[in-house]
């Protein structure tokens, strides 16, 4: 599948409106400043595919008013580099810095992953930057968490 990307954004400029509009982002670099990390939205699909290796996807934390982003790894089927939107401070924050969240958390992807919708991940250890697939909707398969 061919996908199209949009204009470059600095990750610090992400807001919820942009992420709702485009739930898949790819890391890239600015030709004018290669040291500055930049991201570009995937603008023509909400289906994350293996060709989108260096990605960042938008997530809802189930049963809360919180949103998050994370990098999906196609090999391990896990999320890492997780950040949560701190509405009070208007910044992206790592989970261990958030005071008003409860563990475990369940993230629901706003995008499809390899054609599957309603994928959920469980994040059970605040100091471990990893969330694992909890529910695959097409298989009705659940992965047990230790």
How would you describe this structure to a colleague?
The chain is mainly beta. The protein has one domain (11-142). The protein contains one helix and twelve strands. The chain has a six-stranded antiparallel β-barrel. A two-stranded parallel ribbon has the order 3-9. β1 and β2 form a beta hairpin. The longest helix is centred in the first third of the chain and has 6 residues, at 16-21. It starts with 15 loop residues before the first helix and ends with a strand. The model is unreliable at 138-146 (pLDDT under 50).
Radius of gyration over all CA atoms, rounded: 15 Å
Q: Report mean pLDDT, rounded to a whole number.
A: 87
N→C terminal distance: 37 Å
Any low-confidence stretches, pLDDT <50, length ≥5?
138-146
Count up the domains.
1
Q: How are the strands ordered across the major sheet?
A: 4-5-6-11-10-8
Total E-strand runs: 12
Total helical segments: 1
Helix amount:
under 10%
Task: List the secondary-structure elements in sequence, H or E.
Answer: HEEEEEEEEEEEE
Structural class: mainly beta
β-sheet strand percentage: 35-45%
Describe the sheet with the most strands: 6 strands, antiparallel, barrel
Overall geometry: globular
Looking at this protein, list some descriptive labels.
two-stranded parallel ribbon; 146 residues; mainly beta; six-stranded antiparallel barrel; 1 helix; globular; single chain; 4% helix; 12 strands
